[in-house]
Amino acid sequence: MSSTETSDSGMYKMMGFVVLALTIFTLFCMLMARILGSHTADPTDTVMRKALMERIEPVGKIRTAAMAEAEGEVAAIQTAAVSAEPKSGEDLYAAACAACHTAGVAGAPKLGDAADWGKRNEVGLAALVASAIAGKGAMPARGGSSLSDEEIERAVQHLTGL
After folding, report:
1. How far apart are CA 154 and CA 113, in angstroms?
2. For residue range 101-155, what is the model confidence (pLDDT) as tens digits?
3. I need a labelling partner for 144 at 20 to 30 A (CA). Which of 18, 47, 66, 154 fits?
4. Structural domain of residue 11, as residue ranges?
5. Three-class SS of residue 136?
6. Is 148 contained in some domain?
């Protein structure tokens, strides 16, 4: 026998031991996994069920008018909305218009600046209100707010001084 045959057979013998050791290790891991992981949750266990339900419950709810109606709250909401005093032009301006018209953002005419409002006021209040409702230049429709036509008119009156 030559020396290469001896070294080859030693290598094959070592590879056999490695494969055998890995096989035994794999079988041991599979057995331990089966033993340790064999317990399943009892579906009638109330403590585990409650813990599960707490983990998967939604973090918030969306209230719709139908839900409020079902709970008898619509009348109270509508009464509060109807009985609310209409906001003044100054309040509406502060809520929706001041962000741009105080600083003159993107060429917006400033509050109380006669030079800015001189030619604009010549077209009249109705035209200015229509322009605010439709949007003009960089200003989006309704100034980017959800104000009603009457509220926009009050805000324009305050802003222009008309």
Report:
1. 18
2. 777 777 778 777 777 777 777 777 787 778 777 777 777 777 777 778 788 788 7
3. 66
4. 1-40
5. strand
6. yes
